[in-house]
Structure formats: structure tokens, C-alpha cells
């Protein structure tokens, strides 16, 4: 069984080492310098929610949390954390499922209206493509009835950008 505390700590220390100061880094993470110091030195491990917030603030939102943890895994395995993206290339469906990912049907032919004016084509035709998400990020919600759509319009910007994908 993995030691997520250690993995998270390694990844956090790695990204902290790239910053000029703990103050700048703590501002980026939206936590206090004191709390950051406790996390970096292992005096506090942080809750799952805090860890996910930190990963999100470092550019690893939602299912990206696993990629953030993969940086820590790489360090612990003695591999170059800067080459971590290569670990995600070519993963099979079984590999993704082992890491907790699920696929959701995606249709680029159907669009969710989120703007003023314009015609948004809606058809019953669904493409055979999928969106991959991290299953645990759904919490207790079921993935059975999920469908992914593209956003059409810009009235919900910056929350929902035109062309973005929603579930």
C-alpha cells in the first residue's frame, strides 16, 4: 500500500524548491507561510481536501491530483520528476482504471448553451469518444449517467469558457 503522506510531501517539497521564497510559494498555494512550513517539514500532513487544493493551485486540478502525486512517486523511485508526463503517455484502459480513472461518453455534436444568441447545434448523434476523469473526484455520485458536452457561448465566462468541456 502506498504512503500517500510521503508521496505528497515529496511532490510538495519538489515544487517548493523551484520557488524563490516560501512566502511567494505560500501565496500561490493560498495557505499561510507557517502552515506551509509545517507541511514541508512533515509536522502536519494536511487533509485530503487541503492537499487537493494545493495541487489545484499548482496547476493540477481535479483528476490532475494523481499527476501531482506522480511527481512524488517519481522522486521516491529515483526518477526525474521533470519527465513525469512521459509516464502518462500510452497508458491503457486497464492502467487508467488501476489509477482510479473512468471514461465518460463525450459528444462534440451536442453543445451546452451558455451564451447569448447564436445557434448551437443539438443532435442525437453521439461521437464514440470519451473524456477521462478521476473517479474519486466524483465523491459519492454515480458515473453511470454522466455525459460530457462542449460549451457554446460566453455568458458564463470565466467559469465556463466557450469551447470548454463540462460533465
Order of helices and strands: HHHHHHEEEE
| CA-based shape | globular
Helix content bin: 25-40%
Number of strands: 4
Distance between the termini: 31 Å
Strand order of the largest sheet: 2-1-3-4
What percent strand?
15-25%
Mean pLDDT: 77
Largest sheet: 4 strands, mixed
Low-confidence stretches: 118-127
Question: What does the model show?
Answer:
By secondary structure, the chain is of the alpha+beta class. It contains 6 helices and 4 strands; from the N terminus they run ααααααββββ. 15% of the residues are buried.
Helix and strand arrangement:
Layout: H1 4-16, H2 22-29, H3 33-40, H4 48-57, H5 65-76, H6 93-98, E1 101-113, E2 129-134, E3 148-152, E4 165-166
Parallel strand pairs: 1-3
Antiparallel strand pairs: 1-2, 3-4
Summed up, what is this model?
With about 170 residues, the chain is α+β, with helices and mostly antiparallel strands. The protein is built from six helices and four strands. Helix 1 packs across helix 5.
Question: Could you list some keywords that capture this structure?
Answer:
single chain, 167 residues, alpha+beta, four-stranded mixed β-sheet
Amino acid at each position: 500500500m502506498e504512503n500517500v503522506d510521503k508521496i505528497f510531501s515529496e511532490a510538495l517539497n519538489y515544487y517548493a524548491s523551484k520557488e524563490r521564497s516560501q512566502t511567494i510559494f505560500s501565496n500561490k498555494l493560498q495557505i499561510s507561510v507557517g502552515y506551509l512550513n509545517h507541511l514541508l517539514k512533515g509536522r502536519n500532513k494536511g487533509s485530503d481536501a487541503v492537499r487537493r487544493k494545493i495541487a489545484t493551485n499548482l496547476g493540477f486540478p481535479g483528476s490532475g491530483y494523481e499527476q501531482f502525486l506522480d511527481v512524488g512517486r517519481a522522486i521516491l523511485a529515483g526518477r526525474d520528476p521533470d519527465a513525469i508526463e512521459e509516464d502518462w503517455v500510452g497508458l491503457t484502459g486497464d492502467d487508467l482504471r488501476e489509477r482510479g480513472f473512468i471514461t465518460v461518453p463525450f459528444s462534440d455534436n451536442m453543445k451546452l448553451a451558455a451564451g447569448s444568441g447564436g445557434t448551437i447545434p443539438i443532435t442525437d448523434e453521439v461521437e464514440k469518444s470519451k473524456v477521462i476523469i478521476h473517479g474519486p473526484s466524483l465523491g459519492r455520485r454515480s458515473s453511470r449517467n454522466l455525459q460530457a458536452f462542449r460549451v457554446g457561448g460566453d455568458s458564463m465566462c470565466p467559469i465556463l469558457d466557450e469551447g470548454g468541456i463540462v460533465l
